[in-house]
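Is 1,3-dihydroxyacetonephosphate placement plausible here? Inputs below.
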Amino acid sequence: MRIPLIAGNWKMNTTVAEAVNLVHSILDRLDKIEGVEKLLCPPFVSLFTMKELLKGSSIKLGAQNMYFKTKGAYTGEISPLMLSELCEFVILGHSERRGYFGETDEIVNRKVKAALVNNLKPIVCIGETPEDNETGRAEEVLYRQLNQSLNDIEPIQDIVIAYEPIWAIGTGKAASGEQSAVTIDFIRNTMTKLWGKRISQDLRILYGGSVTSHNIAEFISQPEIDGALVGGSSLKPKDFLDITNQAATIKVPHTSTHLRTKE
Ligand code: 13P
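Reply from A.M.:
I modeled the complex. Tokens:
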């Protein structure tokens, strides 16, 4: 069974005080939504406070990045060991990290390995640029990102993949539900080649990029799409609640084929 996941990536928004206000405005209602996993990824500085606020609730906590070393002289970095005390998930390889901070697939790969060693569930982001899309290279790029970011990693169900086409992030120009379902199908097929059918059927693959309460239904109604990584709309309490509610209502958890049929 793939439990749908709705994750809010707050990016570099909210002071601690603002994060507290935002959580207070959604906590009770978000907590009560059943049938989907709910995840909030605030900035590092709010993780400790958020952990306290979410205690006893059904809402999970995640970070937006980390370094791959456990500890040492790496001024300004945050380690997986530190995060493992605070949260369950970590977003890795987001296109903003790749684009603005020079993260390569090799770095993402080291981070994914380090996260898993420290019992963190990585949300590995992949996505093509507008140029890749226009020149018909999207699948080639996605294949490379998956193959290299997950290189030399034992197949494991705890990884989440987020497909975020760069041209759709923060632009208000979301991909269509059908278009992203085709790409996510390609991603799952690629994972079948890399990790085998059994695990790939159980992996959750999310869509991200200009998801709103107006278009979430289009994505979540696609059987191959297991949820959403939400940026801008996750900062708006009403919108994020609405997105999560719609996901819970529309999505019937996908039963993986290996539970039903023998391979
Ligand atoms: P927006 O929802 O703001 O387009 O951001 C998507 C994203 O990058 C989530 O990680």
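Short version: The longest helix spans residues 177-195.
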